[in-house]
Amino acid sequence: MTQPLPTATHWGNYLIDRAGDGELRVTPSGSDPDPSPIGRSLTATHDPDHRIARPAVRLGYYRDREHSDTTGRGREPFVEVDWEEALDIAAGALRSTRERAGNRAIYGGSYGWASAGRFHHTQGQIHRFLRIFGGYTASVDTYSFAAAEVTIPHVLGMNAYYAARQSPTTEEIARHCARIVFFGGAAARNAQVNPGSFGAHGYRDHLAALRAAGVDTINIGPVRDDLEPVLAARWIPCRPGSDVAIMLALVHTLLTEDLHDRAFLHRYTVGFDRFADYVTGRADGEPKTPEWAAALSEVPAAEIRELARLLARERCVIGLPYALQRAEHGEQTYWAAWALAAALGYIGLPGGGVLMGTGSGMTNGMQRRRLPFEIAALPQPPNPVAAVVPVARLTDMLERPGETVDYNGRVLTYPHIDLVYWAGGNPFHHHQDLNRLRRAWNRPRTVIVNEIGWTSTARLADIVLPSTAAQEREDFAAARVDHWLSPMRAALPPYREARDDYAIFAALADRLGFGPQFTEGRTARQWVEHLWQTTVDNAAAAGITLPDYNEFRSGAPIDLRPRLPESRHVLERFRDDPDRHPLGTPSGRIEIFSRTVADFGYSDCPGHPAWFPAREWLGSPRAQRFPLHLLSHQPATRLHSQLDYGATSRESKIRDREPLRMHPADAAARALHDGDIVRVFNDRGALLAGLRLTDAVRPGVVHMATGAWYDPLDPGDPKSLDVHGNPNTVTHDIGTSSLAQGPSVNSCLVQIERYAGDLPPLRIHRPPELIPAGQVGAHPT
Q: Which of 159, 521, 696, 731 could form a disulfide with 225 if both were Cys (CB 3.0 to 4.6 A apart)?
């Protein structure tokens, strides 16, 4: 390379070149005032210990194809083959599955974080391929936000992500809002990554502006430093999972002290009277008093009562991170927060209401400036297969084909899955109870994976097709939740024999008879130019001029903020005149009581916000056996599990294990010390972690990041120790409720002890055993 070339990632824009000694250099874009440290890990893009060099097929599958013993996944070596043979094997498996069991037997797994690029977005590539092939069983919702994704449309009549962007601006909060109450904080680590791309990180500047304006900040949650220190927030430590109880007690105080906004509730909501009967105990005989909530949350009743009075006295805003609803009965957290905000009456006023998804990417950072045009993406034909499964019910689907599950008023039937094709994503990072998933993973006859590196998922596949990394492809990055358009040059050559996902799917489509339909006669570069020109045309229709592709790709990222007008929020227009601007709910109002949800008849999710104790929390009988509540969060050192092998991630570990934070009192009770390697366990599994002591977590709570690549000591053991530190080894794989069936990862109890044995080496950070195709005959069965 003669000059640095720009690339875009989910965590920022960077320039890539090589130093005089050939060492890869990564430099943050000059437009980013607070670049993410994850960018340093891009120097490991071509690390041979992690990248997949050639197509590979599991030995047993290479010999016996779809009749192989699937329990060999993760235990057998891989046979390295050439591309023609690998594609023939994969195409044969797809064809025979369709002929034998139909397209419904194919599960197309993907997740949207593989690339920030618009064309090389892996999720779009695999979905287009499988849809043209005849369809596939698809997933719905996300691991991030599933409970809210299903609940918020019933409450507000709009998409949950769109509702989250209905946030008051920093300036409005600074001018009009006296107080922000965060339930569960708003960690800056989550604000460093964003769907699409991230042109400039400004989250800490927003927080500093709120502090300078004197906005009072309160953090109710089990972790103190889930808010940046600049806010100097008052911390109210509570038991994990008790947020709804506290919210209900706040509403109880507003009602019994006549502090609620009767006029707002009458004009803008429906069903508050039903909810009030529940809160006061008229409906069930149990008033949700501050004393009642204190017993559940361990927050003093007097503190809850005084907080309710503070909230009623001056305009406030309620902040909710995504993580709050990733727990059993997670639907209730967001619903109860909107009920509390409605009782206060600040919704739709400047600086008031609810901040949803606080601290997550640009969710609250758009500051009213939204793109007035569509950004082009790879076209998607309809999926001929109607079968869907909630994304967090993956293991249930594999384990229990033919059984039914309630979901948002529907009854879904789990299909029998014969073939899993995964491209973009690592389910053996983000799913729960990984040992259970590993057992269920043996049920399909075939697992095909397009992957960059030797992740846990790649090692548990039958056919592994090496794909290029984002820095090895030409593309452009843009998103509706960012203000930037960023060129992505091919800053590095493809690693060894890696191919773009587009090239892989095009070659498979040729073998399966629909190549021209998939490619539409375009090369990858022609698709990128076509999508850019479509975006240019869409922008022109909205009065915004963008350069042609050659000028764009040769220039710097484009900051659209100066050209975007400020928009009015739906909830502001609704507050102005709810009759002229009704919400999308059946009543046109905020539905504190939803007749729709009530008529579903779910015992675990009634028609209004309610308290349900989780099966796993510190107030449950199970806490006698497993007395520590494990909270797992998004990492500061990588995006999910991406670049776990990079410098930023590896430097954060303790003797190569993922750190776990614990209160000193809990450590003393177990004779543990800072830096110890500990065994974290329950009856689902066990993992190793490196111990960090801190008083930033309340006693009884332990706290660790997700994303350490799952590395079972014995892949043949159904409850093998994970030697690296993936918390999903022990998390509970149950749905939030019958409404959303989202993940309940943060309802998890464990016990911890010092690890006494010899420390097992990591295997996940070096390649699996690979054998040349010519030596298969000599290799023992």
A: 696
Q: Is residue 655 part of a domain?
A: yes
- What percent of the chain is modeled with pLDDT above 90? 90
The CATH number of residue 99's host domain is: 3.40.50.740
CA separation (Å) from 462 to 67, 123, 313, 420? Answer: 12, 20, 62, 10
- What is the per-residue pLDDT for 540? 98
Q: How many CB atoms lie within 10 A of CB 611?
A: 22
Query: Are 230 and 356 members of one domain?
Result: yes
Instruction: State how beta strands 446-451 and 463-466 pair.
Output: parallel
- 646 and 727 co-located in one domain: yes
Distances (CA, A) of 330 to 336, 400, 432, 531, 596: 10, 24, 16, 38, 18
Residue 112: per-residue pLDDT: 78
* HEC readout, 683-726: CCEEEEEEEEECCCECCCEEEEECCCCCCECCCCCCCCEECCCC
Burial level of 302, CB count in 10 A (0-12/13-18/19+)?
Answer: exposed
**Do residues 414 and 339 both lie within one domain?**
no
Per-residue pLDDT at 364 = 79
pLDDT confidence of residue 219: 97
Q: What is the pLDDT of residue 1?
A: 47
Residues 509 and 627 in one domain: no
> Does residue 28 form part of some domain?
no
Sign of CA dihedral 390, 395, 396, 398: positive
What is d(CA 234, CA 255) in angstroms, rounded to the nearest whole number? 25
**pLDDT tens per residue across span 670-714:** 999 999 999 999 999 999 999 999 999 999 999 999 999 999 999
The parent domain of residue 65 ranges over 56-141+386-477+484-520
CATH of the domain at 635: 2.40.40.20
Please give the mean pLDDT across all residues of the chain.
95
Residue 439 forms part of a structural domain: yes
584 and 627 in one domain? no
Helical ranges in 483-523 per DSSP H: 501-512, 515-519
Give the domain CATH number at 346: 3.40.228.10
pTM higher than 0.85 for the full model? yes
Number of domains in the chain: 3
Distance separating the N- and C-terminal Cα atoms of the chain: 46
How many helices (H) and strands (E) would you count in the chain?
25, 31
CB contact set of 145 (below 8 Å; sequence gap of 6+): 160, 161, 322, 325, 357, 742
* Token pair belonging to 273: 């009277």
* Residues 294 and 207 occupy one common structural domain: yes
- If asked whether residues 206 and 244 sit together in one domain, one would say yes
210 torsion bin: left (phi>0), alpha (psi -120 to 50), beta (else): alpha
Which residues are tagged catalytic?
Answer: 111, 113
Distance, CA of 534 to CA of 650 (rounded, Å):
41
The answer to whether residue 91 scores a pLDDT higher than 80 is yes
Inside any domain, residue 297: yes
Whether 746 and 631 have beta carbons less than 8 Å apart is answered as yes
Q: What is the pLDDT of residues 29-53, one digit of tens each?
A: 888 999 999 999 999 999 999 999 9
Asked if the model's pLDDT at residue 2 lies above 70, the reply is no
Same structural domain, 405 and 279 = no
